[in-house]
Write a structure and sequence with these properties.
- With 141 residues, the protein is an all-alpha fold.
- The chain has one domain (7-138): Ferredoxin thioredoxin reductase catalytic beta subunit (Ferredoxin Thioredoxin Reductase).
- The protein contains six helices and no strands.
- The radius of gyration is 15 Å and the shape is globular.
- 29% of the residues are buried.
- Bound molecules: iron/sulfur cluster.
- Iron/sulfur cluster binds at residues 38, 54, 56, 71, 73-75, 77-78, 84-86, 88-89.
- The site of iron/sulfur cluster has 14 residues, from α4.
Length: 141
């Protein structure tokens, strides 16, 4: 079994999740254990690395990864597309929002199109979606 994270960081992450749900217009998963496992993972990384790195990914070098903000919760995918692949921030049915994802994103392939119930909230980095699309089209295939 993985190490128990510090109570301080567990409480901090619980508080963060509640606030971020409200801010982004998303919900916690209807099965509480799903949320709890992700919170524990975020708290463990906060203990180990000083930052809440996404716990649902593999990193060749975690210390290198925390130097970028890409996978620090709330990650780029969440802030740009409102997509949380850990199912921490979802709709009321427990599905991740996928409607803004680029056509070739794995989230769309896995979940199909899931509409955003609160399009007026969240996605503070939405302008980057367009920038990324331009970069993608310019990339040699
Ligand atoms: S996918 Fe992003 S928003 Fe979801 S838990 Fe991981 S870092 Fe946080």
């Amino acid at each position: 079994m993985a190490d128990q994270p510090s109570e301080k960081n567990v409480l901090k992450m619980r508080n963060f999740v509640d606030k971020y749900c409200e801010k982004s217009g998303t919900s916690k998963h209807p099965t509480p254990v799903v949320t709890e496992e992700v919170i524990l993972g975020l708290a463990r990384y906060s203990d180990e690395l000083g930052r809440p790195l996404c716990p649902c990914r593999f990193y060749p070098d975690k210390n290198e990864e925390v130097k970028h903000r890409t996978w620090i919760c709330a990650c780029d995918d969440m802030q740009i597309y409102k997509y949380c692949h850990c199912l921490l921030f979802v709709n009321e049915e427990g599905q991740p929002i996928t409607e803004y994802l680029p056509a070739d994103h794995e989230g769309l392939k896995i979940h199909g199109v899931v509409k955003d119930p609160t399009p007026d909230k969240g996605r503070p980095l939405r302008h980057k979606a367009e920038e990324r699309e331009i970069e993608r089209k310019e990339r040699p295939s």
